[in-house]
Specification:
7-stranded mixed beta sheet, alpha+beta, Aminopeptidase
Length: about 180
């Protein structure tokens, strides 16, 4: 599995019941409640997968959740969609990403996103999809993702996409 270089004593793991979710506080109630109350249940139902960034001995520094989905051909930018069939198209949804307040401002958010995208890329080599999509909770989150080349969906200013071709180029150092 492709992995991102992390500071010493940090590592990613798939969310487990034993992880201390109750102590996680990002400052965004929806992000916190997803991790604390819904992420493990959705994972057990095979609706999504949540990976946590742990600092030894087990403090959750951050997390991300990925899920498969579909997007309507008409919702994609014309310059991108014109080469695709006009139907529902497969995507990966970056459903959630959060960093605990104690770790905000340290660069871990970018590393968590990089690992999420590396996981998407690895998956895309086996199960094709056209883009990674996400919904931004606020303008600050939108700015964060746009810094990493995510672009707006036409008519949906808070929904961003990273096309597969750009993700693939990023993973091969071509951007």
């Amino acid at each position: 599995m492709t992995s991102v270089r992390l500071p010493e004593k940090f590592f990613f793991a798939t969310l487990e019941k034993s992880h201390n979710r109750a102590a996680f506080t990002s400052g965004d109630n929806a992000v916190d409640q997803w991790l604390k109350k819904s992420a493990l249940q959705a994972q057990k139902k095979r609706l999504s997968v949540t990976r946590v960034l742990l600092e030894e001995p087990g403090t959750i520094a951050g997390y991300y959740t990925l899920a498969m989905g579909q997007v309507n051909f008409d919702d994609l930018p014309h310059t991108y969609a014109r080469k695709l069939p006009s139907t529902l198209l497969p995507i990966i949804t970056l459903a959630w990403l959060g960093v605990d307040k104690r770790y905000q401002g340290t660069g871990l958010g970018g590393r968590i996103l990089a690992q999420a995208l590396a996981d998407c890329h690895r998956t895309g080599r086996e199960i094709p999809f056209v883009a990674v999509l996400l919904d931004c909770a606020n303008p600050g989150a939108k700015s964060f993702y746009q810094h990493y080349d995510f672009q707006e969906l036409p008519g949906h200013p808070m929904t961003l996409m990273l096309p597969w071709l750009l993700l693939d180029a990023m993973m091969h150092g071509k951007t």
